[in-house]
Amino acid sequence: MDNLKAELLRGLWYVACPGSDIKPGAMTGKKLMGEMVLLGRDKHGKVFALRDICPHRGIPLRHGWFDGEHVQCCYHGWKFGTDGTCVDIPSTHEYQTIDYSKITCGAYPCIEQQGLVWVYFAENGEKPEDGRQPQPPMLPDFAVDQGPSVEIMQHFVCSVDHAALGLMDPTHAAFVHTSWWFKKNGTKLRPKEKQFEAAELGWAMVRHKIPPQNIAYRYLLGDNVTTEISYRLPGLRIEHIKGDKHSVVGLTTITPVTEDETEVRQMFWSTMGWVKPLKPLVRHLMNVFLDQDRRVVVQQREGLEYNPKLMLINDADTQGRWWMQLKREWANSSAEKRPFENPVKGRVLRWMS
Question: 322: which residues sit within 8 A by CB, 6+ positions away?
Fold first, then answer.
């Protein structure tokens, strides 16, 4: 955590992009986990992910063409199926014998679920079902084919560790997230006390009632509004707010581009149909809020360049410690070929914010 770069965990599902970013018959290349990845959607509507490098001369396949069934390299016309297997080499002479099935550009397991495209990055070439995270998490209250009501993405010039610590930091809002419409008088801090417990691949703030002063939640969601916030590897924050009438799920994802660059996405799903007309306004406010986090990690980087020894305090930074403990346990359990054991122990945390 003291460094500019972070160790990237494998054997996990990462959010690559919203499904709406990939149109039928289209493909797009991007860097994820320090690797070149080609994302596409075939003529039947199914998403796929390939290694975005032609095995012939190394040119990215994204510069070529896709007919809804095959990806063709722009350099020599080699064709690959959506599983990565070569199906044609135009320069092959009729007297040459080449087993195309033995040539591949490489493919990644890829799933579209709840409007998001997830890509699995294996530890040792295993299939997801043979690994430690067989499938991406399902968000509560929403169907597998129901996408987010609103989503945004911003590029953070920082490691996934520093993006994650900002995500779970409960005390920075009064100083970073200040706007005319939110925490204008940011210096007014109040005592907070929350119960936490271990959860799947992470931990959760135990479900509790929304404070009575937050009347907006009652107006929108009905009575008896409760919330639960969970954090899990490889970098997911899930907040589930539920009332008698409606529910909202907020998801923030951090996907490493490289060891020191990260894509941060914020999205939410809602059972309230009237949210759609307000989408432009909501997206603007979300971008303002997330950009405040982005700017502060850019400023933080100026100091991290000098490799200072960082100091975490209890209880405000305990979740940051849990994050690093989880990462170490994931890596160590893999190296030692043993089951993952969640190191988080449930406890009450107290802070001012």
Answer: 202, 203, 231, 343, 344
Contacting residues for 60 by C-beta, under 8 A, at least 6 apart: 29, 36, 38, 52, 53, 54
Whole-structure pTM value: 0.94
Q: With beta carbons less than 8 A apart as the criterion, state whether 50 and 84 touch.
A: yes
In the three-class reduction of DSSP (H, G, I as helix; E, B as strand; rest coil), residue 40 is classed as strand
Task: Reply yes or no on whether the pLDDT at 200 is more than 70.
Answer: yes
Q: Is the pLDDT of residue 125 over 70?
A: yes
Specify whether the CB–CB gap between 69 and 81 falls below 8 A. Answer: yes
Q: What pLDDT was estimated at residue 182?
A: 56
Residue 181 has pLDDT above 70, yes or no: no
Phi, psi of 298, deg, nearest 5: -65, -45
Amino acid type, 110: C
DSSP H helices, the chain, are: 160-168, 173-176, 215-221, 279-304, 318-335
In the CATH hierarchy, which fold is given to the domain comprising 150-352?
Naphthalene 1,2-dioxygenase Alpha Subunit; Chain A, domain 1 (3.90.380)
pLDDT tens string 221-241? 888 899 999 999 999 999 999
Of 176, 151, 175, 161, residue with least CA distance to 295 = 176
* Alpha-carbon gap, residue 22 to 17, rounded angstroms: 8
The two beta strands, 116-121 and 150-156, are unpaired
Cis amide bond preceding 148, omega within 30 = no
Q: According to CATH, where is 2.102.10.10 located in the chain?
A: 12-130
pLDDT beyond 90 at 167: no
The CATH 3.90.380.10 domain(s) of the chain lie at 150-352
Token pair recorded at residue 36: 């070149």
Tell me the H-state helices in 65-222: 160-168, 173-176, 215-221
Q: Name the pLDDT band for 220 (thresholds 50, 70, 90).
A: confident
Domain 12-130 has CATH 2.102.10.10: yes
